[in-house]
Design a protein that fits this description.
Blueprint (H helix, E strand, L loop, with lengths): L14 E9 L5 E9 L5 H4 L3 E5 L6 E9 L8 H7 L1 E8 L14 E4 L2
């Protein structure tokens, strides 16, 4: 079990680190995420969720909507997220920011409740 991936307690924030970013062929991005803090969310909690992504220095923040899951390593499940602390999500930015810094490695992604 990955440390820090027990069931979330009241008030615990779920924080992921972006470990890879890929363009999705039909629009949006695929974000490969690794759990950093908080409890591992369920697949149901992630599907359709809004994530706030932030640059490493915290200067750039934006919101993205989880549209679905990439299945590079197999179908995502609650058990797999708890065990590995990783999940690949297909996201769309809620507000296009053409001039802004693109989402990149080492950004953080927080699950908004």
């Amino acid at each position: 079990m990955v440390s820090g991936t027990s069931s979330p307690r009241q008030g615990d924030a779920t924080l992921f680190r972006v470990i890879d970013v890929l363009d999705h062929p039909h629009g949006g991005l695929i974000l490969r995420l690794r759990l950093q803090e908080g409890g591992a969310p369920s697949v149901k909690a992630l599907k359709g969720a809004t994530l706030e992504v932030a640059s490493p220095d915290g200067g750039t923040k934006r919101s993205v909507k989880v549209d679905g899951f990439a299945v590079f390593g197999g179908r995502p499940s609650d058990e797999r997220i708890r065990r590995t602390g990783r999940v690949d999500v297909h996201v769309f930015e809620l507000e296009e920011d053409e001039a802004g810094e693109p989402i990149n490695l080492q950004w953080t992604a927080s699950l908004l409740k």
